[in-house]
Specification:
- The complex is a heterodimer.
- Chain A has twelve helices and 14 strands.
- Chain A is an alpha/beta fold.
- Chain A has a six-stranded mixed sheet with strand order 6-7-8-3-9-10, with helices on both faces. A four-stranded antiparallel sheet of chain A has the order 2-1-4-5, with helices on one face. In chain A, strands 12-13-11-14 form a four-stranded parallel sheet, with helices on both faces.
- The relative contact order of chain A is 0.12.
- Chain B is mainly alpha-helical.
- Chain B is flat.
- Classes of the chains: A alpha/beta, B mainly alpha.
- At the A-B interface, helix 2, helix 3 and helix 4 of A face helix 1, helix 7 and helix 8 of B.
- Chain B: It is found in: Cell membrane.
- Chain B: InterPro entries: ABC/ECF_trnsptr_transmembrane, Cobalt_transport_CbiQ, ECF_CbiQ.
- Chain B: This is Cobalt ECF transporter T component CbiQ.
């Protein structure tokens, strides 16, 4: 396990303010947060590239020391993939780039190690190619291959899906899954909710140098509040049936359950969605529309739970004034 | 995007490959320098190999040295003393000047053809790999410098495009301003790059080893033929 305890770091201004972070081996931990909240700074502490001002970093229970020998041991265990592959690629040819780490760790059979690492990221036969001649996606995969070749226990990736196309994205997902299958611990900083959902086991949100959320499922509403990119422009406003219906300029109104339909009828609200309500409401919100979903109070938790699984801006509007509910028979058509 | 020499080197057809190619070129040079027959043979062989390897890129690459070579030959032709064979006003062409100009032209062209074959078919890491007997720090310095040059060229190209897209080179004054700005930005970028370079090496446990790959030798028969012809030319 990689752990930080009360980690503080900064120059003129503090970037990390008492971060307590944990990432398990064999799991993929996703670190999210808007630009400049300290994600990369935190990641750089995890393999000793930065030394904290206060607090400590522990790797498999052992506190990180910053002498040359200890750092070498840490970097053998924890590999770092930079956000910009051009920052990481230090050798002119692909073979040299991948062989660099293992050679410095004293590995033998470099040709086999390089071949295997390149194959695992889909760059088979690229050994003799010059790094400067590779495309952006290929450079990204090369930078991952160059750390895989070192066979670390943990792999840190800073924005691995940034600037890659759909094919590159698919390949990044496959590489992350392959590494997890091999028992590696992965710590991935990303803005990409697609990537986070596809590979993440644990989600951590950062804001203003602190961890503000930790969970097994990402909290989309919090993500939106924190300014994390979710690709969602739609809104799902959920109103319990026994609450005042707010005046909202919604594109669609949905009523879920008999009590909700009664309430809508009583308030003279025209309902657009009456069947498969939750699914269709989420779908409309995903399309970018504003949907007001009136549901029975008993269903509120279910709606919250299901909607939070999708990148929609979920809002609960609850005005605690119990309205008079008419029996359904009184409503007629 | 522009086609770089590196991409030509990678795509070129290699009749000879590996360290043997580098040794062949460097060991042929002394012979080419001293013997007229070896020069002519080398000119024919390496030019053919270069055209076969890189086609039109050979002519593109040789254009600039040929320009200088032609200019120098003309100067030699007109300023060397000897028995006059042609008079052009104040300028004279002599028997000696024709001989010296011809010798210089053939010798330079022959040397050039051998080196151009090397340039068109060999990347710098392959050359460094052939010279693995050199002290470690020289090889490391060569490869790192090469990688940094690759970065600098990429950055310079991007900055140039950005300036060009915003009319940065219209008019002499603007051209000077843009070039100065570009040089300044490139300098700052190179400093940042140096910092990241160091960090990237540190993160992968750099302990003074910069691996170099062995390139398998190929075309031993062709090498044998070339060496035999050059030596025969020299001896006969």
């Amino acid at each position: 396990m990689i752990e930080t305890r009360d980690l503080w770091f900064g120059y003129d201004k503090m970037v990390l303010k008492g971060v307590n972070f944990r990432a398990e081996k064999g799991e993929t931990t996703i670190l999210m947060g808007r630009n400049g909240v300290g994600k990369t700074t935190l990641l750089m502490h995890l393999n000793g590239l930065l030394k904290p001002l206060r607090g400590k970093v522990l790797i498999d229970g052992v506190e990180v020391k910053y002498d040359k020998k200890s750092l070498k041991e840490i970097r053998k265990k924890v590999a770092f993939v930079f956000q910009n592959p051009d920052d990481q690629i230090i050798a002119p040819t692909v073979w040299q780039e991948v062989a660099f780490g293992p050679a410095n760790l004293g590995a033998e059979r470099l040709d086999d190690i390089v071949k295997e690492a390149l194959e695992s990221v889909g760059l088979k036969g690229y050994e003799k190619r010059l790094c400067s001649q590779l495309s952006g996606g290929e450079k990204k995969r090369l930078s991952i291959a160059s750390v895989i070749a070192m066979d670390p226990d943990y792999v840190i990736m800073d924005e691995p899906a940034a600037g890659v196309d759909a094919i590159g994205f698919k390949s990044i997902v496959e590489i992350v899954r392959m590494l997890k299958k091999r028992g590696k611990g992965l710590i991935i900083s990303t803005h990409d909710f697609d990537l986070a959902r596809k590979v993440g086991d644990k989600f951590i949100f950062m804001d203003d140098g602190k961890i503000v959320f930790e969970g097994d499922e990402p909290d989309i509403a919090l993500a939106l509040k924190l300014g994390i990119r979710t690709f969602s422009t739609g809104k799902l406003i959920v109103v319990p049936h026994n609450s005042e219906i707010p005046k909202i300029d919604a594109d669609f109104v949905a009523a879920m359950g008999i009590k909700a339909k009664e309430k809508a009828a009583m308030d003279g609200i025209e309902v657009d969605i009456t069947s498969a309500v939750l699914e269709r409401s989420i779908l409309r919100a995903l399309e970018g529309h504003t949907v007001m979903l009136i549901c029975s109070r008993e269903m509120l938790e279910v709606v919250k739970r299901e909607a939070s699984k999708f990148p929609v801006n979920l809002e609960i509007k609850e005005i605690p004034k119990v309205s008079k509910v008419l029996p359904i028979e009184a409503l007629g058509e | 995007m522009h086609e770089t020499l590196e991409s030509v080197q990678l795509k070129s057809k290699k009749v000879i490959d590996g360290a043997i190619k580098v040794y062949l070129i460097f060991l042929s040079l002394p012979l080419i320098l001293i013997d007229r027959e070896a020069q002519i043979l080398s000119l024919l062989m390496f030019t053919s190999l270069s055209v076969h390897a890189a086609g039109k890129h050979y002519f593109r690459l040789i254009k600039i040295p040929i320009f200088f070579l032609a200019a120098s030959t003309v100067v030699i032709l007109l300023i060397t003393d000897g028995k006059e064979i042609l008079s052009l006003g104040l300028l004279r062409v002599t028997d000696k000047s024709v001989e010296v100009a011809l010798t210089t032209l053939i010798r330079s062209f022959a040397t050039l053809s051998a080196l151009i074959y090397l340039v068109l078919t060999t990347t710098l890491p392959e050359i460094v790999s052939a010279f693995r007997f050199l002290p470690f720090f020289i090889r490391e310095l060569l490869l790192m410098t090469y990688r940094v040059i690759q970065h600098l060229i990429d950055d310079a190209f991007r900055l140039h495009m950005a300036a060009e897209a915003r009319s940065g080179y219209f008019g002499f004054k603007r051209w000077i301003n843009t070039t100065a700005l570009l040089a300044y930005s490139l300098f700052l970028k190179s400093l940042r790059r140096a910092e990241m370079f160091d960090m990237a090496m540190e993160s992968r446990c750099y302990s003074g080893i910069y691996p170099v790959q062995n390139v398998k030798n190929k075309g031993m028969f062709v090498v044998a033929v070339i060496v035999t012809l050059l030596v025969a030319g020299y001896l006969l």
